[in-house]
Amino acid sequence: MAPPPNPAAVLHAALLRASSSASGLPPRITFNSLLAAASSSPHPRLRALALPALALAHAAGVVPLDSYTLCPVLRAAPSAAEMLHALAAKSGWLGSVFVSCALAASYGGSGRFHDARRLFDESPTKNSVFGNAVLAAYLSAAKWAPALGFARRFLELRLQVNGCTMTAVVQACGEVANADLGAQAHGHATRRLEGLEADMFLVSALVDMYAKCGLVSRAERLFGLAHQVNGGRCDVVLWTAMLNAYGRHGQCKDVIRMYDLMVASGIYPDELATLAVLSACQHAGEVAKGLKYFESMHEHYGLVPAPEHYGCVVNMLCRAGEVAEAWEIATKNACDSAISVSTWGAMLSACKDCGNVEVGRMAAQTAIKLEPANVGIYIELSNLYARACLWEEVDQLREVIKDKGLEKDVGSTWVEHGS
Question: Would I find Repeat among this entry's keywords (predicted)?
Answer without folding.
Answer: yes
